[in-house]
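lol so apparently i was supposed to do this last week
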Amino acid sequence: MEIAQTTHRTAAQDHLVRCISCGEANGPLAADFRCLHCGDLLEVDFPKWSEGLAPDSAALKTLWRERRTSNQPLDTSGVWRFREMLPALDDWASLITLGEGNTPLYDLPRCARSAGVEQLEAKHQGMNPTGSFKDTGMTVATSFACQNKFRWVACASTGNTSASMAAYAARGGMRSLVIIPEGKIAWGKLSQSLDYGAVTCQLRTDFDGCVRVLNDIIRRYPIYLLNSVNPYRLEGQKTAAIELLEQLDWQVPDHVIVPGGNLGNNSALGKAFLEMMRLGLVDSVPKISVIQAEGANPLYRAVHEHGRELVAVDAETLATAIRIGNPASWKKSLRVMEATGGCVEQVSEAEIAIAKAEIGADGIGCEPASAVTLAGLKKLVKSGFVRPSESVVLILTGHVLKDPEYTIQFHRGDLSVPRMADEEFHTLTAKQRKSPIVLDADADRVLRTLAAEDKRDG
Ligand code: F0G
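anyway here it is w/ F0G bound
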């Protein structure tokens, strides 16, 4: 195996960085965050928790609640407020925060009826500073990059990681290199990375091709890698699970449903729930299930066709955030699924579009990749995996304004989806579409439109 040339140190004594396969811990970190012995992924562990030095769970709950009245940046961040469960920086002056986390938990009454469950909630991670869940991980990983005195940070991305990285790098005074697939990035995301000052390279390939190119670059240039193979990112992303349970007064929901792309986020949330159980904050964990788009379903196929081994696919879906054929964190993801009793499901482009419009109609909205959660839930209810009386939380990962082109094309009836004839797609989605109405500037015409709507409703 080729070993990356650049290495950097781990931080304080409070945590280990350990290989998920061979268990090797706390050597210098390779630039590609792969184990220097066996090449597998790394994860953060807290050995003191096993040495009788775990923090007291009741004290933690009180402390975290008290911090909500503080105005210190470490406390107003919805990530660092939970810092007892995060790796500590040696030098807190390196902290980069935009006040991430602190995202709302919404109930979705209409979506619940549509899915056939009594109680449905959404943890909206799209309400983070740059409009996606990536910020929760980025505050931790960029702070470590800053502490390690990196001048450059980089990621390959389907758009949200790059937007988030560009913002946090700018805040921390670092330069950022964005590698994205040309033509497959939602406009909101591309515009963010430009505005935050990243060097933005659109490569004529897909996300998986971008990852290959970036891996080559980091072997040849001292750049800090901010893809989700970076274990510090997943540590930050864990906090959505902690914040969720705090919002639910520590009542554990039966199911948490997460979109699956590179498979870092469900792994991070699973790690958090299992760690909260280890610390005695709760005595059970939710079943964590992953939903993929049918056209980008390598985890689904690994479980249902390939005996739990990953075989890369050529990914194609309009949910561009999860257009990924060779996900890095698939092993972590399978472990979480096994440990929590979750499952993996796939959904069609039409199912995604309908679910997205339904989440919008509940007054919330999200980007297409997030809507796979509701689409998947419907299938899990039909199959009996989720019972109507069980409590379910959807993790909405990105803001509705990330991909306005998709939304407008959908409502206008201009959206063409892969693997389905336009006519069939438009027939299936007719009920959810709300086309804009162009009229002469005349009150009578608008009133006639209102009357027609009223008649349709009534
Ligand atoms: N939802 C959104 C909105 C995303 O942007 C992503 C991933 C996911 C879900 C899937 O999360 O990769 O942890 O399984 N976006 C990455 C990016 C790949 O580059 O922005 P995952």
